[in-house]
Design brief:
The complex is a heterodimer of chains A (83) and B (350). By secondary structure, chain A is mainly alpha-helical. Chain A has one domain. Chain A has a three-stranded antiparallel sheet, with no helix packed on it. Chain A is globular and about 35 Å long. By secondary structure, chain B is an alpha+beta fold. A six-stranded antiparallel sheet of chain B has the order 13-12-9-10-11-14. The two termini of chain B are 33 Å apart. Classes of the chains: A mainly alpha (83), B alpha+beta (350). At the A-B interface, loops of A face strand 10 and strand 11 of B.
């Protein structure tokens, strides 16, 4: 999944979509995922990084990443979205 | 060092600042920040309690003017009197209901040396809510279905066509969302008692509301355009907070609107974006909106550009603005001496 280029993300997890004017707040895990997605990292690399950083089960992180990606899609923050 | 900027006298109306505020005070703030000129501001007020009258740091002097219902002769007479005293260069009317008179009197005002930059009478009439379906068809712009009705009974027929909810609108102001026939009838009576007939019944488009303010040069060119998403909406549907956005579709629609209509003057487009990302034009306000200071704050001083166009001064189009900038409105209690209220109430000027 690619994040739209114009999405602004601050260091404390404030996410702003200048196309719609909507803003959101991500927690630290969400922010880590978002920043890695913005860099174009693959899912496997993101899961491995998060699992290691937070000492969590990779299977749980994989599910979280899928849920998070779905949320980003719903909020029209991913690049393939035309809206 | 000598100040080389011209000094202009600009008359501005819309000095009220209730929960559905007039644009006047925001327009004046913009004019005060103009780079191309310095200005003296003459306020034009209908009521003695319009707050702008008492903002002496923004407005040099305010005069009462007659309500539009008094007719254009009364307005002409009053403006001639004010002009004799103040020597007005430009007038910026800011109420929908007064625009007809100001557009009609434009040639006579020009004979007095008072210039304006307003839509033509054809443009003004064609975008009336009552004419919106035809407007959309003519210019290839998506608009919600709507119909002007003269009896509450007619709403029931539209219910089958449009479904619920329906938007019940006054011809100039006010809109109420009705979810059933009882609410629609009540809205009809409430709005018609205030603004008269017809009442416009509009299909409700589900989505997110966006507004674009801008300025057309009358030759199809966009001089300014700033889109905004309402973030905080009052029970009257007015923006009490908003944020600038960069939506190419909203800007493309604005360019299309200006090119096709050859719109002259300031405007506000009220748009609804549905789930499929389609924009519907809900309304065209043929004037500067109350949130105009946001446009100034992001780099497009529309009142300044409009003043220059009114005086025939070459005006370059704005090409950028800052997205993600917000405005947050607030109310402010002024302490006013009774003598001032007495003076504007009895003499019609302060």
């Amino acid at each position: 999944m690619k994040i739209k280029n114009n999405i602004a993300v601050s260091d404390n997890g404030f996410v702003f979509n200048p196309g719609s004017g909507e803003s959101y707040t991500a927690n630290q895990v969400g922010l880590d995922m978002l920043n890695m997605l913005r860099k174009g990292e693959k899912s496997a690399a993101i899961i491995s990084f998060i699992a290691e950083k937070y000492e969590a089960d990779p299977a749980v992180i994989e599910k979280d990443l899928n849920d998070f990606s779905e949320t980003l899609k719903q909020y029209h923050l991913s690049q393939h979205e035309e809206l | 060092m000598k100040n080389s900027k011209p000094q202009l006298t600009i008359a501005v109306s819309g000095l009220n600042a209730i929960d559905s505020p007039g644009p006047g005070v925001a327009v004046i703030r913009a004019l005060r920040e103009a780079k191309a000129f310095d200005c003296r501001i003459i306020g034009l007020a209908y009521e003695s309690l319009e707050p702008g009258i008492y903002m002496h740091d923004l407005i040099e002097k305010t005069y009462h003017i007659p309500y539009p219902s008094a007719g254009t002769d009364a307005l002409m007479k009053r403006m001639a009197y004010i002009n004799e005293k103040e020597n007005i260069d430009v007038v910026i009317p800011n109420f929908d209901a007064e625009l007809y008179s100001f557009i009609k009197l434009k040639p006579k005002f020009e004979q007095l040396g008072i210039y304006s930059f307003l839509p033509t009478m054809d443009q003004f009439e064609s975008r009336q809510k009552i004419n919106l379906p035809e407007f959309g068809k003519k210019y290839g712009i998506n608009v919600p279905q709507s119909k002007a009705v003269y009896t509450p009974g007619e709403i029931n027929k539209l219910e089958q066509e449009y479904g619920w909810p329906l938007v019940v609108k006054g011809k100039y102001y006010d809109a109420i969302l009705a979810y059933n026939p009882e609410q629609a009838k009540s809205a009809y009576q409430k709005i018609s008692a205030k603004w008269g007939l017809p009442i416009i019944v509009q299909e409700f488009v589900h989505g997110t509301e966006y507004n674009v303010t801008g300025l057309g040069d009358g030759n199809g060119n966009t001089i300014a355009a700033v889109p905004m998403r309402k973030q905080y909406i009052t029970d009257k549907g007015k923006a009490w907070g908003g944020i600038t956005i960069t939506d190419p579709k909203a800007l493309a629609l604005t360019t299309h609107f200006l090119q096709r209509t050859q719109w002259r003057g300031a405007f506000e487009l009220e748009l609804m974006k549905d789930k499929e990302g389609r924009y519907f034009l809900l309304e065209i306000n043929p004037r500067i909106p109350a949130w105009i200071y946001l446009a100034v704050g992001v780099g497009q001083n529309i009142p300044e550009a409009l003043t220059k166009l009114a005086l025939g001064i070459p005006t370059e189009a704005f090409t950028t603005y800052e997205a993600g900038k917000m405005f947050i409105r607030y109310a402010w209690d002024m302490i006013v001496d009774l003598k001032e209220f007495e003076q504007i109430s009895t003499n019609g000027e302060l």
